[in-house]
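Running this now, will post back.
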Amino acid sequence: MEYASQRGDLESVLEMVPCSSNLDLQQSLCLAASKGHFKLVSALLDNPAISPDCVAPLKSTALWTALGGQTALALAVSSLEPRSVQILLQKGADARKTSKRDLSRGYWSPDVETFEDKQTALHALALTDSTEADKPSAQLILDMLLSAGADLEARDETGATPIMLTIGRIQSSPCSLLTLFLSAGADPCVLNFAGESLLHFACQNFSSVEVASLLLRYKANPNQTRTSDGQTPLHRYVRLLFSIFVGTG
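Update: finished.
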């Protein structure tokens, strides 16, 4: 069933549904959602035994690896398939529901810790490597989640709001998702738990000049200080310049 769900083989999965456990059905939905198989997602949700708010089941993997726990909605969002997201929301999926991850101590230990990383479907959207070509789909998904009550300023376990996760990673189009979140009204001056702003992150490397410019256009405060030491984004940028000049002799 797992293989058929990953492939989106609707006929094969539906044949196996009557003899499958609830856990198998949940896994099937999550796999279909993660792969963007919206027809299979729709067919599975016609079964009242499958909740649109189900989460990916525990799966064994390497040492200290986060296992499962993502909601079907978050997985659908990660696939950037708007039709899967729409179906789940229409069936009653909670746009504010957060993921609960299982953390394995390793194959030699039976211990598994469950913790709530508090990431929502919006966090999942922010973590996608969305390109300019994906922007229409990402926009549709963002609009649907917000209409369903998703919170732009929801914080995960580390204190990051969704917009914070769009900055500081290697991405094909670093400003694509950032622009969508800013246009939707996300706070450009938000601080994480360490007291750092989006501009502080953008000033960590030269490749983020475009990101910094975009933030400033949306009224990010260039004089906003880091709560731990009072440094502004400019302090961080000057430190970057200094480290490069010293490093090159």
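Residues 233-247 form the longest helix (15 residues). More later if anyone needs it.
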